[in-house]
Amino acid sequence: MNIKFTYLIGIISLLKLSLAADSCSSKITAQGYPCCSSGCLVYYSDADGTWGVENGNWCGCGNGNVSNNSSCSTKITAQGYPCCSSGCSVEYRDADGDWGVENGNWCGCGNGNGNANNNNNVDNNNDNNNNNVDNKNNNDNNNSSSAVSGATIRNNMFWKDTSGKFIYSQGGGVYKFGDKYYWYGAHYKGAETYANNPTKRNSDTSFVSVTCYSSTDLVNWKFENDIITPRTGNFGMASWFGRLGVAYCKQSKKYVLVAQYNDSIMFASCDTPSGNFKVEKIQDQITNITSLGTGDQTIFIDDDDQAYIICSNKNGRGIQYVSKLRESDFLFAEPAKEVARGYGREGDALFKYKGKYYFCASDLHGWNASHSYYMVADNIFGPYSEWRVMEGSDDDFSFVTQTGFFYTIKGSKQETVIFCGDRWSDFAGNGLGYNQWVPLTVDGGKVKFNSLSEWNVNAETGEWSVGKGNNYCLNPSFEADRVQQEALAGWKNFGKGYKNKSGGHTGNFCAELWANTAYEGSFYQDLAIPNGTYDLKAWVKSSGGQKMANIHVKNFGGEEMNTDISKKIDNWTEVSINNIPVTTGKIQIGIYANANANNFVNVDDISLVQKA
């Protein structure tokens, strides 16, 4: 997806960026990146311009000098990493090439020295190898620290296609036709506005098109076509268009698009998966659903290639349904079967894993983040179990998303279900990126949400592993809770003065310690993480004047480490605790203040990342 990744932090400052004197491409500054200082070093070039790196962040390098090591792997630079300096030390090796580390960040080590262990080699004779599949374990949980050979998914950013343009795909689905994956979704005008300047949400749901992207690895997506636009014949006038999917009908030999269209459902078809689709019909109501149209919906394709609409009713969304598409042409939704009622749900979607059906949905939070719920059945029409909350989705409200759709990889070694979360940040303002994908761990009636900012996936084998740049902090940008409150998702607290506050470093919120009387208070997380050496970084503001105020880490196997934030800090400033030696498989990270009345500390965008 040719993403310019801001190294291991995952989120960069997109507020109050100042341009340096050296000129650089307007295509770069339009994305929120500053120009570099004069005489910068060019590490990367693409259609947007030339790129440099300063203080660990990308910048536009208008008239810079080419890096003195241009021979590192293009597979590395295509992911947004620079080449290292000459004579670098190889710290890691995978299918993309040799990796080094400079200033605490990954870089491509084309002509480096030293020998790295190839962490992607699978020792089939070693029963303890975490990449092997234990056939006695139904959860196929391959979340080891050993890297899986494959492609890397990085969340908390705006994804780009293989040509370097933003991917606009919301409320859609991924389907495999032939030997390619096809991703369909809605392109809204407001998504363009927010991606180019993600500082203020908007409400512009003007429909631009249904986009189609293709991929062979589920990570690098090529733009194929706008398969439906407002200019498509017989499209008419749409105040709302979205919540869509595409299925191939074997009987008609047509690819069929099914989407919400105003208060109705539109059906369109095409001879190819990425061609110009033709509007076939509009269906105003599905029999047995209590209102016109649907609440939210997705399209599910079963193992026999039969397609279904998974949805709720529109008014109240308290009833969930499954509707089969007519077998002969998929151009009509047959009478729906009610499968649950009693709880308001949206983001209705379904996946199948080892013969069982999992009907999933989110809370009625509008465009905002939610817990993720599921019911389980042996038949697509039920009976289903009671609603259950996905383990792990409470900690950061499903990585600040709501249920979008699912894709199940049926690999040569294991099945892996991908939770493809919709982060409607264009309309909610709750962070960076629209598409946040994470792997699920499924074991019979139990579903675990693995909240990861970076992970590796092999679309052929189905294996996955935690990425080397994963941020282990949960709800690090404090966007999960949606509204101002004291108890924040993923965080524990003691004392008083703790809450979230509007006006974050990025997004809507940050964490705050403040009271109008003298106080002592703290936010903290107890995390289970692999042993290794870590860096913790955070963005802070402080009134100063506290008796004590710090960000700290402890319970990792060594003495407490901290960074003082009791001095006056008027503007967002990044602080860090580096080289944290974790030997106990756990750590506590915390924000603490013992302060006088009206002293405050604001903290946002925390990262806890393992070093090479």
Textual characterization of the structure:
With 612 residues, the chain is mainly beta. 4% of the residues lie in helices and 43% in strands. The strands form 11 sheets. The protein has a 5-stranded antiparallel beta sheet, with no helix packed on it. A 5-stranded antiparallel beta sheet has the order 33-34-41-36-39, with no helix packed on it.
Q: What gyration radius follows from the Cα positions, in whole Å?
A: 24 Å
Helix share of residues? under 10%
Average pLDDT rating: 85
Strand order of the largest sheet: 32-35-40-37-38
- Runs in which pLDDT lies below 50 for 5 or more consecutive residues are 1-22, 66-70, 113-142
Total number of helices: 5
Strand residue content: 35-45%
How many strands?
A: 41
- Tell me, briefly, the overall form: globular
Distance between the termini: 24 Å
The profile of the biggest β sheet is: 5 strands, antiparallel
Helix-strand makeup class: mainly beta
